[in-house]
Amino acid sequence: MNVVPLHGTRPHSRGNGPQKTGIIAALDVGSTKVCCLIAKVEPPSRNSVSGPKIKILGVGHHAARGIRAGAVVNVEEAERSIRLAVDAAERMAQVSIAEVYVSIAGGLPNSISYSSKVDVAGEVIGQGDVSAVTGQAMRQASAAGKVLLHASAVHYSVDDARGVRDPLGMHGSKLGVDINAVLVEPGAMHNLAMVVERCHLSVAGFVIAPYAAGRSVLVSDEIELGTTLIDMGGATTSVAVFYDGNLVYGDVLPIGGHHVTKDLARGLSTTIAHAERMKTLYGSALPSIYDDREMISVPVLGERGVDAINQVPRSMLTGIIRPRLEEIFEIVRDRLEQSPVANKMGRQMVLCGGASQLTGMREAAGQIMSRNIRMASPVGFSGLPDSSKSPAFSVATGLLSYALDPDYHMTELLEFSRETVKSTRYLNRVGRWIKESF
């Protein structure tokens, strides 16, 4: 595993919490838009049973340039998009920010499970036993050559008892652990961190997009009982499976709503801008008996004038949109069925993201996935403008939730990963010196 330190950033920092000023910031770098949210952490009231609350102070978003499928492809254009989004949020909030939590969807993030088992040193399981079994599991990922983005102990086992959450103090002779790790290509993370640094910001932490969305739109029971979250973006579709309070699976597919727009542009011989407009106003994932009667005006690509407009039935739009959506959900279904957490998905599935707002999306997803589908939007954020209370802002608001309550349980796993990489690099340098000298 290659845990690469990024200059001026803390890509793996966990447990930092809000800044001393109580200001937290999130940066959602998507393929179609860059969104920055600035918020203030408000302490709970004296009679409140809930924890601190998040009050949105500033919102800024700009069309994404230089970003493709969640990865940076043009540094200057990506930097400009981020600068404009951050500047708009800072002007609205009337504060300046120094660090942000950043979502990541590029770099082919994938979820891998690792298992290990060790003999207990004494009669009672202690911290040394837990560290030993955890270290053994993390060593299996050392040859992956990727950056460890998330890691969580899904559950422990003591002898024949499985599903143990905290084995400390228990009696047993064998201790096992199943760990879920989300790995990402180091190049994509380096490039994204570099662009953020060029905007004079430091990265407080990277969070995989679907996990951030889950922190924003899922309720506690869904995370405990087993829920699959699908975040449908412009050029990517992110998937996360939550079970027993943990992220047990994460994946990002390089296909999204913009592919539907391009299909319409090609099929109707019109511009991408007009195709996006028609998809938003008239598009549907479900056919209707009235679609053949309703005619839609479609400007012809490259032509001008009144004669350069075609009239097509609305059913033609549905006929182009539906196959692409079926492809997306079928790929998601196949990936989930092939994963080791297929038995933990449950019947509940939650849709969010800008592309999920297409008419009939919930019903179409239910038909293809054979699951109970719920459409979700950010909840629990005061000060959020009405225009931002949509599924398209699920990741950005989820980053704020993560900033307020980072994953403390991941610290030990990530620290072990750093130590493993340091020792591995040292041994590699010694071996290279011996080979070159003798």
Please explain how this structure is put together.
Strands 11-6-1-2-3-19 form a six-stranded mixed β-sheet, sandwiched between helices. The protein has a five-stranded mixed β-sheet with strand order 14-13-12-17-18, with helices on both faces. A four-stranded antiparallel β-sheet has the order 7-10-8-9. Helix content is 35%, strand content 28%. With 438 residues, the chain is an alpha/beta fold. A hairpin with a 3-residue loop joins strand 1 and strand 2. It has three domains: 1-108 and 185-218 and 377-406, Nucleotidyltransferase, domain 5; 110-184, Dna Ligase, domain 1 (2-Layer Sandwich); 257-324, Nucleotidyltransferase, domain 5, CATH 3.30.420.40. It has eleven helices and 19 strands. It starts with 22 loop residues before the first strand and ends with a helix.
